[in-house]
């Protein structure tokens, strides 16, 4: 499905954030991943803050929703597989988290480029991409 305007991009960003929050909360509840639980809890809390930032950005820039058309931008490349966290072992959990974070970082970076004409939105999306890149760096060390 195409992301062809500001509203569509920010709505998709909110969907991603909500899915990531649910994934990380469920991951933290998996007893087989005890050592990863604090990390998953922290990621869930950070994604909740990111969701607030996405929603605030959408609210504060709602007048821009119809002004800036976007071309050649689609959801599919940014949709990560989210296996059931309850059935994951450590390696599977880390692999899933890395994919989620990589696709989210890529989405926010590309969305920032697509919405470059809207400086406040561009800045917010770049910040979200950086936060996801930090998660990726942290996951790479595990």
Briefly, what is this?
Helix content is 66%, strand content 0%. It is mostly helical.
What does this protein look like?
The protein is 66% helix and 0% strand. It is an all-alpha fold and 142 residues long. It is elongated and about 50 Å long. 31% of the residues are buried.
Keywords:
142 residues, Ferritin, elongated
Write the layout of secondary structure elements.
Layout: H1 6-28, H2 37-60, H3 90-114, H4 119-140
Helix pairs in contact: 1-2, 1-3, 2-4, 3-4
Low-pLDDT regions: none
CATH architecture: Up-down Bundle
Number of strands: 0
**CATH H level, superfamily name:** Ferritin, core subunit, four-helix bundle
How many separate structural domains?
1
- Roughly what percent helix? 55-70%
User: SS-based structural class?
Assistant: mainly alpha
What series of H and E elements makes up the topology? Answer: HHHH
Q: How many helices in DSSP terms?
A: 4
Report the major sheet.
Answer: none
Given the C-alpha coordinates, what overall shape results?
A: elongated
Distance between the termini: 34 Å
């Amino acid at each position: 499905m195409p992301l062809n305007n500001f509203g569509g991009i920010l709505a998709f960003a909110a969907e991603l954030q909500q899915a990531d929050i649910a994934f990380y909360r469920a991951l933290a509840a998996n007893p087989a991943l005890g050592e990863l639980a604090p990390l998953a809890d922290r990621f869930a809390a950070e994604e909740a803050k990111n969701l607030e930032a996405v929603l605030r950005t959408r609210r504060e820039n709602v007048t821009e929703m119809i002004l800036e058309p976007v071309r050649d931008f689609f959801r599919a490349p940014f949709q990560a597989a989210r296996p059931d966290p309850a059935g994951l072992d450590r390696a599977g959990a880390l692999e899933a988290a890395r994919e989620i974070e990589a696709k989210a970082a890529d989405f926010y970076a590309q969305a920032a480029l697509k919405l470059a004409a809207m400086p406040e939105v561009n800045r917010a999306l770049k910040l979200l991409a950086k936060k996801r890149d930090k998660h990726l760096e942290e996951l790479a060390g595990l």
